[in-house]
Inverse folding.
């Protein structure tokens, strides 16, 4: 098959054109046939075809002559029946399965797993989810831009892809362009270099929905920022939807011009909060079902997911990775997924995500919680209203840090380790008898682990 040969040959171009060029310009090429010395490629956009023809013809011809020495010319065609490009239909061959998605613009590839169905909703992300859902309906633009922000691995890209996929199926008439800010910059710089700014502007200004992931990336990149700002304004003026994501709020992105910041803030800004225990558990349950498609015989013993949700509180990506490893490991060694196996298999992950809660943090949180002064908690007063919070703090230090009893005692105003032991025991008893104490402990533990 000529496609397969091309697949191998094209790899050789990687060296001569560089990794970035290769990804952007060469990978999307789909060799259809070679006839009468003309090699015909399907390309996702005219823009791409023109660009490749101007910049990489010689390199491509050189490689193609390995397959067919008679090749002397390249031709590019967009294999779509998009009403927006009726003229292209005549010259394009029938669409093959391998042809790129029919969007006339080069949307970055979407991860098929990142759908709304696969997105688990909980308190920390319900607002972001609701806003994303609304925008994905493709109805009248009500907030522009939608700005999603939050820490690493909390589902920003997942939601962005979900919006793009949903729009692609329900609103095929719409031009949806999804790309990372890095790709935006890359294309911008390319366009500058080859003096194709008009094409660049045209592409970005002809979309109905523009989605740019990780916009914090353009901070400090002045000319990219400038162009982004103009693109942004042009689209907003035309009432086109813009969806952006970043790892922090617009106002907190350093080296971003004030006018850009304020533009970004004028739509709907929603944040994805760090996951809580319930959300993590929900995500794990949903991901277990996905794993079981590949490993139908593997069961997960009770308590394992709870353990993971409790112990891995960093980001969802880590949680997912842990589960994948667990299933692969269990299937390899032919064992059940129980706590013991989990601890064996994930020892490094568990160690890395060990919560480094400090005694000071606990003391601060507990004194805040009971509304007493830190100095009173640590000081010598024996009043019940100080002694009980002190014992709660000691209990938490014992359970949430790796400090020894004497060490804890020292940090509580130089108390003896037996005093600490007594305090810890007292709270252990009260935890069972006194609902209020149990609740306080749970609340404090969660807030310390968040
Ligand atoms: P971000 O872009 O915020 O860094 P991602 O969207 O890439 O994070 O999410 C990291 C991983 O975690 C992805 O595999 C994603 O599917 C998964 N994930 C994050 N949040 C959720 C969620 N609420 N439900 C299901 N999967 C999630
Ligand atoms: Mg992301």
């Amino acid at each position: 098959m000529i496609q397969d040969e091309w697949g191998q040959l094209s790899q050789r171009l990687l060296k001569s054109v560089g990794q970035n060029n290769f990804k952007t310009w060469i990978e999307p090429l789909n060799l259809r046939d070679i006839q009468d010395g003309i090699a015909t490629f399907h390309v996702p956009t005219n823009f791409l075809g023109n660009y490749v023809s101007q910049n990489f013809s010689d390199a491509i011809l050189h490689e193609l002559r390995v397959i067919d020495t008679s090749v002397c010319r390249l031709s590019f065609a967009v294999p779509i029946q998009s009403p927006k490009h009726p003229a292209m239909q005549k010259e394009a061959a029938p669409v093959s399965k391998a042809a790129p998605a029919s969007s006339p613009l080069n949307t970055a590839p979407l991860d098929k797993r990142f759908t709304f169905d696969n997105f688990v909703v909980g308190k920390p992300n319900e607002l972001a989810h609701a806003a994303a859902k609304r925008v994905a309906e493709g109805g009248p633009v009500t907030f522009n831009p939608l700005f999603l922000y939050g820490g690493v691995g909390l589902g920003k890209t997942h939601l962005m892809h979900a919006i793009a996929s949903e729009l692609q199926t329900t609103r095929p008439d719409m031009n949806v362009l999804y790309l990372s800010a890095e790709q935006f910059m890359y294309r911008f710089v390319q366009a500058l270099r080859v003096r194709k700014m008009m094409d660049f502007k045209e592409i970005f200004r002809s979309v109905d929905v523009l989605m740019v992931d990780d916009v914090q990336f353009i901070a400090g990149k002045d000319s990219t920022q400038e162009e982004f700002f103009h693109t942004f304004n042009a689209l907003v003026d035309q009432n086109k939807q813009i969806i952006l994501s970043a790892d922090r709020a617009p106002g907190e992105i350093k080296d971003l011009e004030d006018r850009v910041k304020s533009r970004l803030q004028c739509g709907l800004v929603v944040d994805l909060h760090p996951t809580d225990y319930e959300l993590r558990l929900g995500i794990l349950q949903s991901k277990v079902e996905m794993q079981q498609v590949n490993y139908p015989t593997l069961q997960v013993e009770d308590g394992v997911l709870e353990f993971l949700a409790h112990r891995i509180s960093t980001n969802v990506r880590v949680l997912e990775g842990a589960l994948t490893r667990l299933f692969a490991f269990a299937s390899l060694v032919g064992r059940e997924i129980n706590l013991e196996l989990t601890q064996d298999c994930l020892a490094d992950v568990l160690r890395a995500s060990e919560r480094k809660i400090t005694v000071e943090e606990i003391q601060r949180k507990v004194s805040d919680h009971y509304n007493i002064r830190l100095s009173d908690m640590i000081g010598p007063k024996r009043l019940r209203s100080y002694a009980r919070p002190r014992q709660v703090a000691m209990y938490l230090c014992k359970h949430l840090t790796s400090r020894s009893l004497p060490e804890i005692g020292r940090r509580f105003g130089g108390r003896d380790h037996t005093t600490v032991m007594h305090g810890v025991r007292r709270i252990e008893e009260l935890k069972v008898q006194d609902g209020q104490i149990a609740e306080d402990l749970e609340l404090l533990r969660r807030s310390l682990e968040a």
Remarks:
- The domain at 123-271 is CATH 3.40.50.300 (Rossmann fold).
